[in-house]
């Protein structure tokens, strides 16, 4: 395998490299909810993966063998299947990052204590 | 059906899910539109990489443009068919709807996850 074969995989790595740091920066709890994360990715990703399989098989689009890794699943490069995991995942991280930032939980911000915490109800 | 038709259907389905079926109503919130604005910027970059280099190639009969890979014009934006924007919008919205739908429903649960400021 030569370097060009990693062209598509590199794009997925770029997406993850850009969003994973949001987890520590905004103390996101996305990774602590693996069941919810998996359900969301499967629920949204599967219909689009089915669309992708259909589109590839009827020839709406095709993949360059010289710029993808050699492994194929149902005619799709492995990266194309990973796309439907990576893109939903980074979308969720972005949404939660924005939600946290807009609620003042940015990098270096103190975790706000809720009123009920102070009353010792938990 | 062409990619153009399917992409338009995808957008409508995602919007109908959000507004009227699942009723997560993300598309009424600033949080979601701001997130989408960030995501679509990076989509243009990464998709430009995939389509500009010809990693993914399109059948001219399935899209608005032709098989010419141009920066802008001929139904393309940063090398990618404009249909990809609709595909991306539908995928990202559907994902965020599902994530929100499977999330905590009560204020107490959300607070436990640090998702509200009480």
Rg of chain A, nearest Å: 19 Å
The assigned structural class of chain A equals mainly alpha
Largest sheet of chain B: 3 strands, antiparallel
Q: State the separation between the terminal residues of chain A, measured CA to CA.
A: 56 Å
Structural class of chain B: mainly alpha
- Biggest sheet of chain A, in brief? 2 strands, antiparallel
Uncertain segments of chain A: 112-122
Oligomer: heterodimer
- Average of pLDDT of chain B: 91
Could you characterize what this model shows?
The complex is a heterodimer of chains A (122) and B (118). In chain A, β2 (72-73) and β3 form a beta hairpin. Chain A is built from 5 helices and 3 strands. Chain A has a two-stranded antiparallel ribbon with strand order 2-3. Chain A is mainly alpha-helical and 122 residues long. Chain A has a domain at 34-103. Chain A has helices at residues 7-19, 22-25, 34-58, 78-102, 115-118; strands at 61-63, 72-73, 76-77. Residues 112-122 of chain A have low confidence and may be disordered. The N and C termini of chain A lie far apart (56 Å). A 3-stranded antiparallel sheet of chain B has the order 2-3-4. In chain B, α1 (3-21) packs parallel to α3 (83-101) and α2 packs across α3. Chain B has one domain (3-94). In chain B, a hairpin with a 2-residue loop joins β3 and β4 (80-81). The longest helix of chain B is centred in the middle third of the chain and has 23 residues, at 30-52. With 118 residues, chain B is mainly alpha-helical. Chain B: Residues 2-97 form the Lycopene cyclase domain. Chain B: Pfam families: Lycopene_cyc.
